Amino acid sequence: MIDSERFVIAKEEHGSFMRIYIPGKVPNHAGSRTIRWTGVPEPISGAVLKKEARRLKATLKSQGLLENLPQKTIPGYAHGYAYDCKLSMTGDITNDPRELIYIRNDVAYNMRHMLWYPLAEILKKEIQTHDYILVDIPVFPKVATEKFFQDWYDSNQKNAAFVQRLNRSSNHTQVCLTSSCGKTILKIKGHPFEKQPTRLVTLLPVPRTKTQPQLSETQLDNIRTRVLQRDVKYLKELTNFEQNQLSRASAPELADTYRLHWVQWLTLAGAAHRSNAIVVRPEIERSYQFTVQAPFMSFWERNKVDFAERGRPVLVELPVPLNAYRYKPAPQPMTNRQERRYLNRLTQQMAEICLTRED
After folding, report:
1. What is the value of pTM for the model shown?
2. Which of 38, 49, 295, 333 has minimal CB crowding within 10 Å?
3. For residues 307 and 175, is the Cβ–Cβ distance under 8 A?
4. Mean pLDDT of 304-330
């Protein structure tokens, strides 16, 4: 690991909040978690951190986890880099003593410069325009070796190629202007979703909307569950068993493979309601944000004052990414009457055989 290298950090705009994640596979199947970040946390006393560090080190030592750890020597010196209990991130991100891990000093130094300092700068900038930020990070092992972070970095760099392709695709996105009945209509072209249906949304005059309450993660999950139950028959590549699970909200792992997408974006006065929501795969949502939403919002922020001065109504055709949807609901499997009679008779015969054997 070299401190001059940098992790790729991805951002997803969700209107009132932003989601930030580190592309790449989490090492050792450690799983991931989400931190709700609302600003630099209140500082914690060094005495508390030292007390928790001593307790953690004693616990790890009693479990035999501090033996035979990978070492690294310093050229020209007789000793190597020492291990110590440190916060897995930086104090600007979290000061929670539960974030302490046992890590080699040089690895902690490299990670601060490769990821945590750049991430903290993004958080401080984005919190100025968002209510809160959700940060997806791995569940760190209590003893974090250099290999753990190196594997994470290597996976991150491989996934960076995908992000770079999306960035290149966004360079081809264009906003075209047409006029109709005294109105200006903006059309977004040159992106992967041109063949998808569109929805016409009014930009000017600014529509009157009620102030929407900030939705919690639980409320967003509830909306996603309701949308999945509503649209389950229209989703592609689902077996009958999976359809039943989603319709009954009994498969949280399967539901997690879908994300909410607001048809009329929240940044364009869209309602955070299930009537304005569909579900998409994560890769589709990422591609949509890079190639459609981000380029158009950049165009609109630069030009909305000019459009307002012209005094004409302005509308935009927003592509709706229905890639995961079919046009008609999936047909229900039907068994003809003759086959049902045969199956019922066969079931009855097997039941009689079982009862006879028990007697």
Report:
1. 0.57
2. 333
3. no
4. 90
